[in-house]
Amino acid sequence: MRGMAWLVWRQHRTAFVACLLLAAASCVNMLWQRGTTRDFLARARTDGTAVDVLEAFQGAQSSAFQSATWTLSLVPVVAGVFLGAPLISGDRERGTVKLVTTQSMTRGRWILTKLGLAALVTLVCSAALSAVFTWWWEPAHLYVNSGHWDESGVFDNTGPMLVAMALLHFAAGAALGMFLRRTVVAMVLTFGFAYAVEILWDTVRPRLGTARTLTSPVEAGRPKLPEGAVWHDEWTVDAHGGLHGFGTCFNESTPEGCRANEGIVAHRLEYFGYDQMNAMQWTGAAILLALTAAILTFTVWWARRRPL
């Protein structure tokens, strides 16, 4: 490593090394936890039914996964607040950028090197953490969070999602640092950005795939979900195909008579199959990475064209 890359590493080596070491330590811990989980499941499946295994898992293993998912949910925040926000704002606040760009270094090379090296650290850390957590989670996916893989703790921390989230937050932090020039202000606003993304993404996640449906006669009760599937929505259906809320006639003194009056003849259950998870994650990651690319492109353009 030499030239501008060496300078950027020297400037931010504390943050870079800290992130790499913390990611490595977390990966080692999750690898050890995976062995413990596999041994537990092997014993539990031998001794009990599926319900017994789920109950035993919730008592013995759920806390480890809850701690891991909470920790991983902080990775994008750390990437944005502690890597992205100070990356450029620090140079602008101290005036270092003027010294660097008055030497033989062009603005374009300066901004690309800074963004590229910090993004590489973000990519390496988040990819390693996501890969190891996914490897740990997969053997126990029916039991972690009661099998609800569509919620943020699992969905956003496995496959490509953690990497895409971390890079988006990093890009947003770097952009805010570029525009605001004040490191602390950029860090605070990046934290606010992370909170807003969390709320917004909860509304986007269920729309990343097309829900499948199961229908059964009303007398047969609620359809049974396939193994590994997650519930999305539920309706009752009349003879003309019209949809009614699942609770229709539920609180009536004579539910059968109410359903007859409403013409309700079937239950309709909407769900996402476990085999849809990978495609939904890549769709979500593509959206996030496109936003990341747009933010970084604008940041580079601004740095090259506008006064620093």
Automatic annotation (TrEMBL):
Which residue ranges traverse the bilayer?
A: 70-90, 111-137, 157-176, 183-201, 279-303
A single GO CC term, please?
Answer: plasma membrane
Q: Which Pfam families match?
A: ABC2_membrane_2
Q: Keywords assigned by UniProt?
A: Membrane, Transmembrane, Transmembrane helix
Which molecular function GO terms apply here? ABC-type transporter activity
Supply the name of the protein. ABC transporter permease
Q: Which organism is it from?
A: Streptomyces albireticuli
The organism's lineage? Bacteria, Bacillati, Actinomycetota, Actinomycetes, Kitasatosporales
